[in-house]
Amino acid sequence: xxxxxxxxxxxxxxxxxLDQIDLDIPKGKVxxxxxxxxxxxxxxxxxxxxxxxxxxxxxxxxxxxxxDFASRIKKNDILSLRKRSGMVFQTYNLFPHKTALENxxxxxxxxxxxxxxxxxxxxxxxxxxVGLKDKKDLYPFQxxxxxxxxxxxxxALAMEPELMLFDEPTSALDPELVGEVLQVIKDLASEGWTMxxxxxxxxxxxxxxxxxxxxxxxKIVEQGPPEEVLxxxxxxxxxxxxxxxx
Length: 246
Ligand code: ADP
Fold this sequence. Notes:
Bound molecules: adenosine-5'-diphosphate
Protein name: Amino acid ABC transporter ATP-binding protein
Keywords: ATP-binding, Cell membrane, Membrane, Nucleotide-binding, Transport
Domain ABC transporter: 3-242
Subcellular location: Cell membrane
Distance between the termini: 32 Å
Radius of gyration: 18 Å
Pfam families: ABC_tran
């Protein structure tokens, strides 16, 4: 297991968005999280790298490091948690005034203070890997949505995380650009990356995920291999959701 999370709870004011979630993320596996809008999927993902601070929840990592949000958390612990994962956002969140290459080098240079020659070589490689070698000097506005999202993926990889988190990575894209981004994620899956992907693309989830998690009303309702959860769900709520979206 890469990470086990127990009792993850998060409220915004009176609204309980995550209710005692238990989640195991196996090393080298892909988890896809599906479910209706407002069920807590994005918040769950954001809690995994402390973009949101959970109210409670015990995080136990494969190397023995633990973080218990029910106790007082130090800022350094939040930073340590954040370092372990890379996040790819729905709306890319690139720096508009930096080139594709500069977007990828920014984190390793500024946050990690790594050697610039080494970082530029790494960024070149990563942009090549996502199929953007010839676009590295272009600015976000000169790139299509699919290309911007691929820069977003290269940027997250440049921080050399242990876990990759994707928050509906294709939902802002025109349909014809979805495939190129999903292909990059599939390539990462076949390289053995540990990944958690919130997605509306059920066909993609079926193809890439080792395990699918269906969330509704702040809870995990059902989870298992895609052929079970997506094709032969046990829970009525999962069935209803799949009937609505398929
Ligand atoms: P999903 O990703 O499944 O659509 P979210 O995790 O984005 O669900 O949101 C779950 C609920 O939490 C929604 O009702 C949403 O409005 C609410 N919510 C999310 N983020 C915040 C926030 N920062 N402040 C207040 N409410 C929020």
